[in-house]
Amino acid sequence: MSREWTGQWIWCADGRIAKTGEFSDVPVVPAAAHDRRVQFRRIFPLDLVPAAAPLRITADSRYTVWVNGHEAARGPGRGAAGRLLYDVVDVARWLVPGDNAICVLVRFYGEANAWWRPVTPTFSHGAGVLLAELELPSGVLGTDRSWRHQTSPAWTPQKPSGVGHAVPEVLDGALWDPAWLEPGFDDTGWVPARVLTTLHLGGTARSTPPADPYGPLLENPAPPGEPVERPVRWLRERRGPDPGGEHGPADLVAAVDAEAGPDSVPVELPFTTVLEPGVAVLLTAGWDQVVAGTLVFELDAPPGVLVDARPAEDLDERLRLRPFQHGYAARYRTRGKSDRFCSADPVGGRFALLVLRGEGEVTVRGLSVVERLRPRPPGPFFASDDPVLDAVYAAGLRTVDLTAQDAYIDCPTREQRAWTGDSVVHQSVDLLANPDWRLARWHPRLAASPRPDGMLPMAVAGDYEHRDGVYIPDWALHWVRSVHNLYRWTGDAGLVAELLPVAERVLRWFEPFSRGGLLTDVTGWVLLDWASVQGRGASSVLNGLWGRALLDFAEMAEWLGDAGRARWARGRHDELAAAFEQYWDEDRGGYRDWLTPAGVAPAMSEHATAAAAVGGLIPPSRRARALAFLLDRTALVRRAWSFGLMPLRAAMGPPAPDWDVEREVVAAQPFFRYVVHDAVALLGGADHIAALCRDWSELAGDGTWREVWSGGSYCHGWSSTPSRDLPLYVLGVSPAEPGFARARIAPRPGALARVAGAVPTPHGLVEVRLDRSELAVSSPVPFTVELDGWSRDCPAGRFSWSREQAS
Fold first, then answer.
1. Which terminal residue of the chain has fewer beta carbons within 10 Å of its beta carbon, N or C?
2. Which one, of 349, 334, 211, 356, lies nearest residue 293 by Cα?
3. H helix or E strand, kind and range, residue 650
4. What are phi and psi of 742, to 5 degrees?
5. 234 CB neighbour count, 10 Å cutoff
6. Do residues 695 and 756 touch, judged by C-beta distance below 8 A?
7. CA-based torsion, 605, 607, 610, 615: positive or negative
8. pLDDT tens, residue by residue, 705-758
9. What are the DSSP E strand ranges found in 565-693?
């Protein structure tokens, strides 16, 4: 469907874009237009159901579309400002001979949240819009004045709240008749949609795309997979007083939870109870794992019963809410028949709390979360004779799956933001363990949204980018590594060429901070890791990451034939390498963390030596000592300044160390371990990676990985490094040439007696099986195999070797 759009931009009759300024020349979306929902319908006849019926659809801010009562899609995915995404879905399976109904609910947020940022409005567009067209044998059925609409009175507008800036929902079921989704619904009171024509300086009054402020529309590069329902696994009931008053849903649930009796009773679905005035029934639901998607509950109840729902990541031993929960909550007032609630936005948690209030008999029939994650087709795997490592690999995949939605997000249970730096781990895991690379390719493009000075936002396509306040300089350097991953794994020269200028601007942003060859006093929030590592002054960790990015950039520029920019990057790297010598500690055999005006401070971490290694800053004569430093676990201490402190206090500067800086070494938190493992492998220690990955057995979680070694969210994609490293280093599969024109197979099993697995490439799966006696490889591309000190160059095909004969 690459043809031009014929569907027109439509919205409700009251666009609510105000004209302000001295000459009424500044369009503004007033608060009265925020968080409102508009319902659209179109009835059309069919003589015969076609084999295919592609629907193209988008909206500002979010839509849900139904065909004859069946939910067909939700979207659009988060996108960059001025680049609205649209979705394509085949709706033929829901069409019938005779009258058909296509119905769309559009929600306009108005205020920026974690996954949406407003555009700069024109006088016509920017306060909500719908665009759709359905391709039928008789022609294209597009949005126009023949679509009927009403502004829904069922929802009470809400504002974003909490650390994730989630938007609560308050829905009056009495004003929400699900029959509107059917062809026979009486929409007599509805009115024709308003067609929007572009109205701005230079506007052409056209009513079809492209149009400002949405730009040329882009088909969603990473559509979600099929929905998967996750029913609740257990329920417990408590009762307490109805607090009454004007509580919002989140506060109401918290108040009932705090005052309800301490003893809970196990119950099952369907759950029936009789509500009494002044008494609140609290249901605590559990999944025994993190789930992420739309929260759905169904019930039979008399009209007017209130249901307040709140997902929860963590409960105490008495099943009560702990502090620091997701800000999302919902309130639903029953209509008395066909009562079903489905949250508009995805939420995440291990638990959910439902509070029932009112009078009469109520039966809760269902409670579930419906996940809509990016696809993970079957094929890749990792298996060994160590069940701990196999479980570690599987947990990382589940963690990344839950944080791979319309972008790579930090966690589904708190923020759901598309962080620029975190995503390098998610992407790497997908490249090594998922044949579907669409999100791995898309997220770096989504994050390529530089500020005017070239620095990238710390999180994109949401409130943080919109406010343009705090930024994390080192996150942009991790983003450069994600572009380098695309270069190596996909070999897509066009994609790399698109992103390389953004990478150059990132690198040049750092240049003015170079003093004597070292980046010094870099502004912004130099985070580095949640571990207690210094980012102030001249940080060796930040300089090492800059060195890696310079080398990555130079390699990609040379590949694209841009020798001049490659020379510039290598020249800066040479200056850095000469100055970096100051950090070397000859006595301890590693690199110190930071340089102050008084000299090099004594503090040392895994981070500094690892960053030096990946940054190409360790002379050959020191490589063995640096490797020994990174493998020495005896002096490691785990410290995380930013946990136990208020975030602002942590960002402003750490307190004094509470460990022996002369003897002890700060260990990397799970995120930065991807750099540590890369360093170990580069220094010749890949045989140790399997043992290092066993550290994850200490990382508590219910089948997903927590944010840090102790504390943080229960599902953080950045903690999933072993699911990359087990196939990359232990199984040993990587591209020897960009795009896997040639593969490298270099298993490093360490103490493992048996490893096997399959790794995706653009040409198919590379399969490797290794035990004490034999190595077997099946590859769709030519490859070089390296094991036990020998190597072979092989064409594509299946091969096996006796390890005894080969050596």
1. C
2. 349
3. helix 647-652
4. -145, 140
5. 14
6. no
7. negative
8. 999 999 889 999 999 999 999 999 999 999 999 999 999 999 999 999 999 999
9. 584-585, 590-591, 594-596, 599-600, 636-637, 665-666
When the pLDDT of each residue in the chain is averaged and rounded to a whole number, the result is: 95
CA distances from 743 to 62, 484, 487, 535 (A): 42, 17, 14, 38
Neighbours of 190 (CB within 10 A): 16
Q: Using CA of residue 620, residue 625, residue 631, residue 636, what is the dihedral sign? A: negative
Residue 646's pLDDT band (cuts 50, 70, 90) = very low
d(CA 150, CA 38): 6
| Four-point Cα dihedral 667, 724, 746, 386, nearest 10 | 80
Distance between CA 455 and CA 451 in Å, rounded? 6
Tokens of 671: 């995120």
Confidence band of 204 (pLDDT split at 50, 70, 90) = confident
pLDDT at 650 over 60: no
Cα 690 to the chain's mean position, in Å?
Answer: 27
Question: Which uninterrupted H or E stretch holds 148?
Answer: strand 148-151
Sorted by sequence, the CB contacts under 8 Å of residue 184 that are 6+ apart come out as 99
In angstroms, the CA 535 to CA 363 distance is 56
Cα four-point dihedral sign 148, 152, 153, 159? negative
Calculate the alpha carbon distances from 106 to 30, 58, 74, 150, 345 in Å.
Answer: 18, 9, 10, 11, 12
DSSP label of 728: I
The DSSP secondary structure of 397-447, one letter per residue, reads HHHHHHTBSSSB-S-TTTT--EETTTHHHHHHHHHHH-S--HHHHHHHHHH
List C-alpha distances in Å: 649 to 286, 473, 489, 527. Answer: 34, 18, 40, 13
- Give the model's confidence band at 37: pLDDT under 50 very low, under 70 low, under 90 confident, else very high: very high
Question: What separation, in Å, do the N-terminal and C-terminal C-alpha atoms of the chain show?
Answer: 56
Other CB atoms within 10 A of residue 57 CB: 24
Whole-angstrom distance, CA of residue 278 vs CA of residue 349: 29
Q: Rounded to an integer, what distance in angstroms lies between the CA atom of residue 80 and that of residue 244?
A: 42
User: What are the pLDDT digits (tens) for 12-23?
Assistant: 988 889 887 766
Rounded to whole angstroms, how far apart are CA atoms 601 and 582?
11
**Cβ contact 676:668 at 8 Å:** yes
CA angle 453, 456, 461 (to 5 degrees): 125
Contact 304, 175 (CB under 8 A): no
Residues of the chain above pLDDT 70, percent: 97
Output the CA angle 666-669-670, nearest 5 degrees.
150
**Segment 436-456 mean pLDDT:** 97
Tell me the pLDDT tens digit for each residue of 589-599.
999 999 988 89
| Percentages of the chain per state (helix, strand, coil), in multiples of 5 | 25, 30, 45
Task: Identify whether 210 is preceded by a cis peptide bond (ω within 30 of 0).
Answer: yes
Q: 660 pairs with which residues across the strands?
A: none
109's tokens? 């947020």
Rounded-to-integer distance, Cα 633 and Cα 630, Å: 8
User: What's this model's pTM, rounded to 2 decimal places?
Assistant: 0.96
C-alpha–C-alpha distance, residues 671 and 346, integer Å: 24
Burial class (CB in 10 A: 0-12, 13-18, 19+), 602: middle
The model's confidence at residue 804, banded by pLDDT at 50, 70 and 90, is confident
Taking CA atoms, 25 is separated from 20, 61, 167, 248, in Å, by: 6, 24, 31, 38
Closest to 465 measured CA to CA, from 86, 116, 222: 116
